[in-house]
Amino acid sequence: MEDTSEALPYWKQDQYSHYAKDANHVYYYHTKIEGATPALFTVFFPFGTDDNWRNYEFSKNDGEVFVGGKSIGKIDMNHFTPLKPVSCPEHGLKTCTYVPDMDSFFTAGNWGSGILGKAGSDLIFLREHGADYFQGMASPDMFMFATTKKIYVYTHETFYELAAGTLSSTRVLVPMDVDYYENNK
Asked: Are 89 and 143 in contact (CB under 8 A)?
């Protein structure tokens, strides 16, 4: 697949080359994308030309969004907002972390190979090949912070760790081990 409507940065051209269509199916790296219809399928770039997002390959089919060929549901990516890490979480914690800005968060390997953000009232961990949803977990008092080893989020007046799930590619929210955080930054 390709888009010839505009001059594209190298990484967008590269992403288009990862997809193919025939009369009945759409493929991502030669693997059929379940739920994709060739006539309705498009590759899109919800974050424009921001090079930080080059590892996330977005496509959609009749409202359903895919990341890296995996369905993440009918999320409106225009409403996805990455959470920017804070340095000093406070709320009873004494230890500060150092993440100066979102660009550093991307270039530092974005702990956990993904980006934590929100869409409406949901918290979403966006991975290169999918997403993990935490329905109703976004709150007005929410913020995230990270160490060199872990991502944490404060929401609904509670600290959580974004931990590995039972499948190595998934993440779950578990209550934060405050002692570990304070002593193993």
From this structure: yes
Residue 63 domain-assigned?
yes
Cβ partners under 8 Å of residue 150, min gap 6: 111, 112, 161, 162, 163, 181
Q: Is 30 a member of any domain?
A: yes
**Boundary (domain end) residue, out of 21, 46, 76:** 76
- In which domain, by residue range, is 15 found? 10-76
Q: How many whole angstroms separate alpha carbon 162 and alpha carbon 151?
A: 6
pLDDT tens per residue across span 28-53? 999 999 999 999 999 999 988 888 78
Under 8 Å between Cβ of 86 and 42: no
The tokens describing 154, both together, are 């404060």
State how many domains the chain has: 2
Same domain, 69 and 146: no
Choose the final residue of a domain: 35, 60, 76. Answer: 76
pTM of the model: 0.80
Distance CA 181, CA 94 (A): 10
Place 14 in a pLDDT band, splitting at 50, 70 and 90.
Answer: very high
Give me 169's structure tokens: 């590619």
Helix (H, G, I), strand (E, B) or coil at 102: helix
- In the structure encoding, which two tokens stand for residue 69, read together? 């060929």
